[in-house]
Amino acid sequence: TVGGPNRPPSKRIIEQRRAEEEQMRAMKRSATASPSSSRPEREEEGYWAYMQRQMQERTQNLNIMGDSMDKVEESSSNWADDVNKYVSKQKKKAVMGFVGSKLGF
Predict the structure, then answer these.
(1) DSSP notation for 15-52
(2) pLDDT tens-digit readout, 12-60
(3) 8-state DSSP, 4
(4) Which residues contact 31 (CB under 8 A, 6 or more apart)?
(5) C-alpha distance across the termini of the chain, in Å
């Protein structure tokens, strides 16, 4: 059989495991060498700085959404105007066709 529980791991899987183990060892070495430098920046950020950053990000997201909604509103308005023009033209053609057929044009 080709596969099964007794099949040895492929060379690719062995290399992948070896690379992962090496990466973990390197991370452990760097963490033990300098514990303060491995901390992310967010932990050093103060409460008010965090709140300010969050407000700024959310405001930007709302502005993006507002711009998108304005574009949607404008395009739907333009579409409605185009439909109204088309319906008006069709009504005019229908009336003119009816009048023309009764008068023999």
Answers:
(1) HHHHHHHHHHHHHHHHHHH-TTTTS-HHHHS-HHHHHH
(2) 888 989 999 998 888 888 877 655 544 455 567 888 899 999 998 888 8
(3) S
(4) 38
(5) 86
Contacts of 53 (CB under 8 A, 6+ apart): 45
d(CA 54, CA 74): 30
CA distance 93 to 100: 10
State the CB neighbour count (10 A cutoff) for residue 45.
13
pTM over 0.70: no
Pair 31, 38: CB distance under 8 Å: yes
Whole-number Å distance between alpha carbons of 30 and 48: 31
